## 1
Amino acid sequence: MQDSLVVLSGNAHPELAKKISEKIGVPLGEMEVFKFADDESFCKINVNIRKRDVFIIQPTCRPVNDNLMELLIIIDACKRASARSITAVVPYYGYSRTDKKDQPRVPITAKLVADLLTVAGANRLISIDLHAEAIQGFFNIPVDHLYALPIFIHYIKEELGIEDLVIVSPDAGGVARARAHAKRLGAELAIVDKRRVGNLDETEVYNVIGDVKGKRCVLIDDIIDTAGSITKAGEVLKEKGAKEVRAMVTHPVLSPPAVERIEQSPLEEVVVTDTIPLPPEKYSKKITVLTVSELLAETIKRIFYGESVSSLFV
């Protein structure tokens, strides 16, 4: 039966796709994905996928528009090649931060991307730590929303220990995520609260809700982009008496000057996952990368065999 499972990869993260295919025990399907001289993307699938279940590994990370267009083109090619089912495996869902209309005359791009994937022909989406849970509702197809939580929990237990541990949300919006980690670990919870005082051009004031003095703090977040918020949160925690501060973040977008900020910050370690490839210029002795390949491989196998995915997180 496994002969009908096909794993394809675009150019966004071939290393992750290779790891996933190895763990599943299925070789990557042969495919050409390239650009013509005029910058138009094109793909050609070189294996028979008729009446087969296809899983396309393609995070929509930088360059976001190129990787998104590649994914749409591959989905279209699979649909026209009569694949039985097409699952878009998008570990990092680009445009996820534009998930609501919070200003006049702005788009909800996360919904637009959901529509594009569906219209292209995707029958299912797999993603990890969506920026907003509500994005699942933007799709009219099944969405398997996975969490990096068990990967981080295992790392904390095996490498750090839970003595004097406090899980910290770097802002009010991430409290639910931090609470889930704290509950699994039996640890205390704290929140870094940021607010402006006076006019918009006046300084921001940071307060810490919870006891962090003499404690080992772990900041939990979904995306680290320019690293401004999380490094500032680390500074505030140290000022409040934290013994040591680390961060665990699922998606390492790491736009400049993120690496420099991390290097100069009081953060002892920033643990990320490989939902997004980390090029050499973004390497740092402070950054530790954990793989999501096993989680994604197990999810793909469970979907293929009709087994429960939610039981992975019980």
## 2
Amino acid sequence: MREPGRDCRLCPRLATYRRANRRHFPEFHNAPVPSFGGGDARLLVVGLAPGLKGANRTGRPFTGDYAGDLLYATLSKFGFAHGRYGALATDGLALVAARVTNAVRCVPPENKPTPAEVATCRPFLAAEIAALPRLKALLALGTIAHAAVLASFGLTPGRHPFAHGAEHALTPRIRLFDSYHCSRLNTNTGRLTQAMFETVFARIAAYLAQRERG
């Protein structure tokens, strides 16, 4: 899989922020966060970007903050992960026919990448998608991830609008599923509940089972 180098400088603002974080938090990962999971993935989960004290600290997507608690518990419940999630990259958790990544690989200030930064990082996402021969489903967590996935397929949100629970045919064999991001903000405000999140995963599991049958 193509991944940005540890000292990627394609986005000057993010590179500057990364250098500052290395001074303030020298024990953190403080580099582009690589995807998690194997090349046999049938499901690719795409988030926004690493959190400062989550994935930017641990070096694994959605690891070390609340979003990871909900995401990995749900992946485990639906058979996409096994082992104990311990909020560390060394916890031994393994994904099953699934992979987790972000639209932007470096932590952005205030968790807000610019449109230019999302576009600059998109080739890494597109290359990853192209390198997954068994891929059948993608889950976009939020509008930015949704738009990044669509752009990787040469599609636009205008014809495929984001909505929680929506589904979009990307190719005859690959489908995109949408969910609100599993952030603490969304769950605390009730915008996303555990039941809502699990409903999306149930539909993904059903779709993959159907594809497996025929």
## 3
Amino acid sequence: MPEKVTHVEGRGTPLDADDVDTDQIIPAQFLKVTEKQGLSKYLFYRWRYDDAGELTGDFVLDRPENAGTTVLIAGRNFGIGSSRENAVWALLDAGIRCVVASSFGDIFYNNAAKNGLLCVKLPDKALNEIRFSIQAGWSLVRVDLGEQTLTHGGKKLRFEIEPHIKERLMSGMDDIELTTSKYLPQIEKYEESMAAYLKPRRQSA
């Protein structure tokens, strides 16, 4: 079951790239790994490792000053491409709890909500302001999902989010819990009718 998400606060790190697809987030050869723990090793693998499989340390998330990144500041169309929930798992396993971008791939966006990864949509201009403030030393980013605000460098920005996504994140419910919370009476009524229907007919004496 995903954790409840009400606030995210921590170091923000810019990833200056648009159109980051799920294969770049976690390459296809690692999809056979079904455990969520340990997937951070393969996060952005092609950008972080050399041909011999050695970590170069040059990638933005591997730099010492960005250790403990909680909020990833991306660009446009983050998480586009094929459907792979492992991309979300790898980000969460790396300690990232929020991705900020101007747009997201639809499947990635929905997978993120199901697993407790907050995706915040802001205009390109706002993203550039956040990058500038981080470069100026304001690395702390605070996100309040209840208020739908992101605070950085003394500025507070409001973002929009779909009500059902917000509810899912703040409640920490999975698909089954979300369904039963809304439709339990209807489900029980249906099950009762099905039980009656399945009863064998009694033969009269």
